[in-house]
Amino acid sequence: MLKDVEYYMTLPYKILIEHDEDNDGGKCCVARLLEIPYCLGAGKTPAEAIEELNIHKRMTIGSYLEDGITIPEPQAKYSGNINIRVDPELHARLAHEAAAFGMSLNKYTSLILERRNSTLETISPAVRESKQRYHSKK
């Protein structure tokens, strides 16, 4: 199968939409692909941001193909297993909290993750930097 721009454009990449401020202090939406770093679009509405994201996605994929850069594809299935390393004190605290609720550490950690605030109130420095770079090019 030929993996050209059109192939990648049809893949179900995950889009994250965040609310932000434009250079004039007004409200805007920023849409970005989770699988392709620095591929984003901005607009006054989520629809405008996604429309611009698709333009940028096409240009980024074309550039990656020309330069021989590997293009990440969306992961189709997830196993449900996550292995993470945490500070031993955090591990102990979580284990004690889980025991207090009569749960396994695995079940308690899963519950915490399910209940987290998924609106991404705080933006990571990497995302903030990519947004600044993007807005400064306009």
Task: Detail the topology: elements first, then pairings.
Blueprint: H1 5-9, E1 15-21, E2 27-33, E3 40-43, H2 46-67, H3 88-100, H4 105-115, H5 125-137
Antiparallel strand pairs: 1-2, 2-3
Question: What radius of gyration results from the CA coordinates?
Answer: 19 Å
The residue ranges in which pLDDT falls below 50 over 5 or more consecutive positions are: 118-124
CATH fold-type name of the largest domain: Double Stranded RNA Binding Domain
* Average pLDDT taken over every residue: 84
Walk me through the structure:
The chain has 138 residues and is α+β, with helices and mostly antiparallel strands. The chain folds into two domains: 5-76, Double Stranded RNA Binding Domain (2-Layer Sandwich); 78-114, no CATH class. Helix content is 46%, strand content 13%. The protein has a three-stranded antiparallel sheet with strand order 1-2-3. A hairpin with a 5-residue loop joins strand 1 (15-21) and strand 2. Helix 3 (88-100) crosses helix 4 (105-115). The longest helix has 22 residues, at 46-67. The chain starts with a helix and ends with a helix.
Brief digest:
The protein is of the alpha+beta class. The protein contains 5 helices and 3 strands; from the N terminus they run αβββαααα.
Question: What key phrases describe this protein's structure?
Answer:
138 residues, alpha+beta, Double Stranded RNA Binding Domain, 3-stranded antiparallel beta sheet, 3 strands
